[in-house]
Amino acid sequence: MQEGNNIFDDEVNFDSANSIRLPDYYRVDASGIYKIKLNAIRRLEIGASVWNIFNTSNVINHYYRAQSDNTVNKFTRKSLGLTTNFLVRLYF
């Protein structure tokens, strides 16, 4: 967004694309899977993963919206916090 000239024709007046960088993105993930052979044809996989182990708040995007009073509201989208996943796969 251009400073000092935020609104033009009732729309947000942006700088050129990628003119400002977002803060550094930091995330640590871990996952594991255990494979079990049931017989000659069938097998089972059981797994788990943890995303963003340190629950870091990472900015992934900024949005701007023009208001009716010629001001601009800034919205920030952040990544998910600590997230767990589990899986069970049966191959036959």
Describe what you observe in this structure:
The protein has one domain. The chain is elongated, with a radius of gyration of 23 Å. A hairpin with a 5-residue loop joins strand 3 and strand 4 (43-51). Strands 3-4-7 form a 3-stranded antiparallel β-sheet, with no helix packed on it. It has strands at 7-8, 11-12, 30-37, 43-51, 59-66, 72-78, 83-91. The mean pLDDT is 85. The chain is built from no helices and 7 strands. It has 92 residues and is mainly beta.
SSE topology sketch:
Layout: E1 7-8, E2 11-12, E3 30-37, E4 43-51, E5 59-66, E6 72-78, E7 83-91
Antiparallel strand pairs: 1-2, 3-4, 4-7, 5-6
Q: Structural class of the secondary structure composition?
A: mainly beta
Biggest β-sheet: strands ordered side by side in the sheet: 3-4-7
Most strands sheet: 3 strands, antiparallel
How large is the radius of gyration?
Answer: 23 Å
Encode the helix/strand succession as letters. Answer: EEEEEEE
Shape: elongated
Query: How many helical elements?
Result: 0
Mean pLDDT rating:
85
Q: Span from first to last CA?
A: 55 Å
Question: Which stretches are low in confidence, meaning pLDDT under 50 for 5 or more residues running?
Answer: none
* Total individual domains: 1
Count of beta strands: 7
